Amino acid sequence: MGSTAFYPEEAPVHTVTVGVFAIEQHPVTTAQFGEFVEATGYVTIAERPMDPELYPGVDEADLVPGALVFRPAEGPVDLRDWRQWWDWAPGANWRRPFGPDRDPAAPDHPVVQVAYPDAAAYAAWAGRRLPTEAEWEYAARGGVDATYAWGDEVTPAGALMANTWQGRFPYRNDGALGWRGTSPVGSFPPNAFGLSDMIGNVWEWTTTRFAGHHRPDTDAPACCPPPADPDPMVNQVLKGGSHLCAPEYCHRYRPAARSPQSQDSSTTHIGFRCVAVVG
């Protein structure tokens, strides 16, 4: 796993052995997450007021339930400043990802606005768990040793293989097969293992703690039990890229790509899928 061809945090290339596991065919959908909430009464991080002890210096009036949402810029912006296209939306959550006055989430799209503990809670309820980074990358590669999950060409024979940004980020999105945000799971070709949306659509949580590079020569744990309360100072590894990934900004729609995200983050481009140990 890993790569030395793109971003430094993907290095070094190294061999990892994983046990036998099964992984879900597609990301958990809004409908599936809704079944979990209905059965348990679970309240997501985005639906809870923020703890002032975790966010010192923030006005208590701003510590209301809500989440980060993507807002297209009006034109070209400095791509080093993500605040140009991300905004805090009070009341945004998995039911209405862009806010209470916006459309409800589509039932067949990946659930979004789920923080790391939310994803872990769903997995435990389902009798499963979240994947480690190594498990996720093995599944995404589908037995193919190539740059992308489908080969070395990003659009083989002109075919769009994943839901990624089409146009000029972050202000002009021509849509991936017509979708300018998340798409229904399974809308794009599966990989060689028959898995859908491993690349693009939404980033996916893993149980691996993020470091600035892979640490194959250490015995650092690959995963750990999710905390009862998320730690905004701890980053988990996200995998797979999303519908917001573009060549000029986020060339991370590849199995080896990885990105850090704090455990308490809920956004419009992060989801998850679960794994089960076999045997």
Automatic annotation (TrEMBL):
Gene3D superfamilies: paralog of FGE (formylglycine-generating enzyme). Residues 1-275 form the Sulfatase-modifying factor enzyme-like domain. InterPro entries: CTDL_fold (IPR016187), Sulfatase_Mod_Factor_Kinase (IPR051043), SUMF_dom (IPR005532), SUMF_sf (IPR042095). GO terms for molecular function: formylglycine-generating oxidase activity. Transmembrane segments: none annotated. It comes from the Bacteria. This is Sulfatase-modifying factor 1.
